[in-house]
Specification:
With about 160 residues, the chain is α+β, with helices and mostly antiparallel strands. Helices cover about 20% and strands about 30% of the residues. It has a single domain, classed as Alpha-Beta Complex (Nucleoside Triphosphate Pyrophosphohydrolase), CATH 3.90.79.10. Strands 1, 2, 3, 4, 5 and 8 form a six-stranded mixed sheet that branches. Strands 6-7 form a two-stranded antiparallel ribbon.
Length: about 160
Amino acid sequence: MPRFSAGILLFRRPASGGVEVLLAHPGGPIWASRDAGAWGVPKGEFDAGEDDPLAVARREFEEETGHPAPVGEPLGLGEIRQKGGKVVAAWALEGDLDPATARSNTFPLQWPPRSGQWITIPEIDRVEWFSPAEARLRIKDSQTPFVDRLLAALADPHTG
């Protein structure tokens, strides 16, 4: 049975032109030295058939950034399947967020593994704005289609 996650890909249109997307870097010692291929859409798991995926996406965005998802009509970006089998659904919303003010929820982690010692780490240790080209270098390979689908939708005069 696959696991399911839902998330929000926040985007903005800077005055200099183009589009930027907000990506999240996972917290904790496992991810501390990883950059390329480590970033992703702020997201969280849900029970398929029980939870509203868009509501989960909005809730998880707030939990992982400390800011509510912007009000507005979300743009569906579809689903992808990550290497581990998890199915991720995402929506894009236009808005802005100062990365310096982002604060994630935390969770306990036994570290080092099987040591009996517990540390508290943030789910997300930082968020940053990236151009689409830079986002493709940073985001998990399986989530790249979300960036591409957003750009395609914004280029379509009926959706963007």
